[in-house]
Every structure is written in C-alpha cells, then in structure tokens.
Write a structure and sequence with these properties.
The protein has about 325 residues and is mostly helical. The protein folds into two domains: about 50 residues, no CATH class; about 260 residues, MetI-like (MetI-like fold, Orthogonal Bundle), CATH 1.10.3720. It contains 13 helices and four strands. It has a two-stranded antiparallel ribbon with strand order 1-2. The chain has a two-stranded antiparallel ribbon with strand order 3-4. Strand 1 and strand 2 form a beta hairpin. Helix 5 packs antiparallel against helix 10 and helix 9 crosses helix 10. About 30% of the residues are buried. About 5% of the residues have low confidence.
C-alpha cells in the first residue's frame, strides 16, 4: 500500500491551536460555498424577477404617454388622462411632514433611552417602542381616521390657520382628512423605526470615548452632541433612510386619512393622494389600460425609493470616509 507523502498529508490535514493534527474540512467548505453561491443566485433571480414584474406591465403606458405620466398634473382614468405629478407631489409632501417631526423626536428619544432615562423607565419605554414598531399599518389608519381626524378638524387645523391668518399653507377649509393628517399618521408610524434603530447604534458607541469626553470636562449634553451623535451618525442615517422608504411606500394608512383627491392641492388642509394610495384604491375594477398606468405608478414609486436608498448609502459612505480620516 503506497504511503501518504508529506505534501498529500498537508493537503488533507492541518494543525489546530493546540498543535494537534486534524483533517481539513475541504468537502464541507466546498458544500458551504456551493450553498452560499446558490442562495446568492436565487436572491439575484428574485430581484430580477421582481423588477421585471413591475416594469414590464408598465411598458405600454410609457410607450403611449411617455414622460407626460411624470409631468402631467391631471390623473383621471375616466377621461383617460394619466398625469402623476400631483401624486408624486403628494407622496413627497406626506413623507416630508412625517420626517420633519420623526427625525428630531426619534433621535432625541433614542438618546434619552440610552443616556438619560433611569433604568426603571428605560425598559418600559424601550418595550413600548418595539411594540409600536410591530403594529399593522391598518391600525394606524384607524387611529388617524377615528381619533385624529375629528381632533384635527375641530382644534388643530383652526389653530394652525390662525397662526398664518388663513394664508398658505393653511388656507383651505378644515375638513379633517388632509395631506397634513396623512403626514402626521406617517410620523406616528415611522417614529418607532427611527427610535429603535437609532437606540441600537447609539448604545454601541465605545464607552471609553464617552468617559474620555466627560473626563476632560465636557457636560453631558456636549458629550451627546459632540461624541455620541458623530460616532453613531452612519447608523442614524440608515435608520432615517429606512423610515423614509416606509413612509414613501405606505398604502393603507395613508389611503384611509388623506381624502384621496388626485388634484393639485393648494394647502396642507386639502385632501390629496399619493402614488401608493392611488394604486391600492384604483386597482380593483381597473381596465387593462388602467392597470398599465398603475404599473407605471409602481415603477415611479420604486424609482423614488431606490433613489432615496442610494442617497442614504452615499451619506453613510461619506460619513465613514470622514470618520476614518479623523
């Protein structure tokens, strides 16, 4: 029987940390790589299939109307007029309102949970945030429709109108269902996401950096804003990006409180419409032609979401480069 040479032995065995010679797991490594490549290929195929399923049905609409789908200001399937500019504007407006409130409140709450609140309060608040993040969107829609809408119509909107003397952007009739209410409902929805993710990245800021800032005489607020936030900015930007994507694509909750009026709104008190709410409401009973234009709305919404994620990644990458250079 031929003897195993030293070269062959080294190919099938390796020395562990204790000096013992063990057989190299070449076969298991190969199987592991095959599984990884297979899963990656499957994920890539799913992404391609998803993109094709969204873009392909919209091609007839783009061929028939071109860029007028994006820049047209009238969306009226009954008259075969398909201009989505007002829907895009409504999507951006509601998302901007939500982020205007959610970003500062969410980051401030995350800082308070990690560095300010006592332990007996920190745990219940953290649990409440996690519960709110898991609430279905239809529940938020019911909350906005049943609870917030009467309050807005009777108290909030008249008060806001008095601040500007009935001028822009609070000059329309107070009807309750409005772009403003949809933005506030989105704010309530995305706030737990920003708080939960920001809290996690703030909690892992190295303790020695915090103690070093305090040891040289920095106050607690200086430590938070000059050490903790800069160190956690990449994760916070990621949390805000994820919240933005959710606000852009939210459907049921917005459809329940925005009033669904696909016309150019001259006030935040006016009913409006978004890309996602229009797709959800008009999908049932649509003709074959209408479905192609709804698919075009889905493609536009997907392009906006991809752009937002790309911007978020660029900001995170830039922040990482700056942090490495310090």
């Amino acid at each position: 029987m031929p003897e195993l040479t030293e070269t062959d032995a080294s190919a099938s065995e390796h020395t562990d940390l204790t000096g013992a010679r063990t057989r190299a797991p070449a076969r298991s490594d190969s199987l592991y790589l095959i599984v990884l490549y297979g899963v990656s290929a499957l994920f890539a195929l799913l992404c391609v299939g998803f993109l094709f399923s969204v873009i392909a049905p919209s091609i007839p609409a783009w061929k028939a109307s071109g860029l007028s789908i994006i820049f047209g200001t009238t969306w009226d399937p009954a008259s075969q007029t398909y201009g989505a500019a007002t829907l895009i504007l409504g999507t951006i407006e509601t998302t901007a309102i939500a982020l205007f409130f959610a970003v500062p409140i969410g980051i401030g709450t995350a800082l308070a949970i990690v560095h300010v609140l006592p332990q007996r309060i920190k745990i219940p608040v953290s649990s409440a945030v996690e519960i709110l993040a898991a609430v279905p969107s239809v529940v938020y829609g019911m909350f906005g429709l049943v609870i917030l809408s009467p309050i807005f119509q009777a108290h909030v909107e008249p008060w806001l109108a008095s601040l500007t003397g009935g001028h822009w952007p609070f000059q329309a009739n107070q009807e309750g269902l409005s772009i403003l209410l949809a933005g506030v409902v989105l704010f309530v929805m995305v706030l737990p996401t920003i708080v939960a993710l920001s809290r996690d990245v703030i909690a892992v800021v190295p303790r020695d950096q915090i103690e070093g800032a305090l040891s040289v005489g920095a106050s607690k607020w200086q430590m938070l804003f000059r050490v903790v936030l800069p160190e956690a900015r990449s994760g916070i930007v990621g949390a805000c990006t994820l919240a933005t994507a959710r606000a852009l694509g939210e459907t049921i909750a917005v459809a329940m409180v925005i009033g669904q009026n696909p016309k150019l709104a001259n006030s935040l008190f006016s009913p409006g419409a978004t890309l996602a709410s229009t797709i959800a409401i008009q999908f049932q009973g649509s003709t074959a032609q209408d479905l192609t234009y709804l698919a075009a709305l889905a493609a536009i919404l997907m392009a906006i979401t991809v752009t937002v994620n790309w911007i978020g990644r660029r900001i995170i990458s830039h922040a990482g480069v700056q942090g490495a250079s310090l």
